[in-house]
Design goal:
This protein is α/β, with parallel strands linked by helices. The chain has helices at about 1-30, 50-70, 90, 95-105, 115-125; strands at about 30-35, 75-80, 85, 115, 140. It has a three-stranded parallel beta sheet, with helices on both faces. The protein has a two-stranded parallel sheet with strand order 3-4. GO terms for molecular function: oxidoreductase activity.
Amino acid sequence: MENLDYVLDVNLKSIIHLTELAIPHLEKTKGNIVNVSSIGSQKTSQTMPFYVITKAALDHFARNYAAILAPKGIRINNLNPGATQTSFVSRHGIPEAAIEKMTKDFKIPLGRWGTSEEMGEFLVFMASEKASYMTGQIINVDGGFLIDSPTIKFD
């Protein structure tokens, strides 16, 4: 339960709290919010269930608050990255050999992990006026990971 409380605090409650604090300013400036969630929000995970549960809750928060904030002129959307090359995994003490194996084992239709720069481009777009008609959306940028499914082979 300690781990659940921690993950809820970091991945969900902090964002809700910051959103509430920012609403008056965003209302004046007609600003918008882009949260970073995860494609994990749409899958199960036996190894990190609390993480994916909180990311699913963050997606639902974005949809709900988009409906609440739209009349005030405030947009809210989530970017849901797939596997992205960052120092997140190594920073948590996972050995380089394990990271390389994990990278190879991920079945990503485009055949590679995304980059931080690619995710940054989507964040910039989602926050820009070019996305001014978008709110309450969960945008998956995952190299096709969520569309990959085993093929049934018929003899």
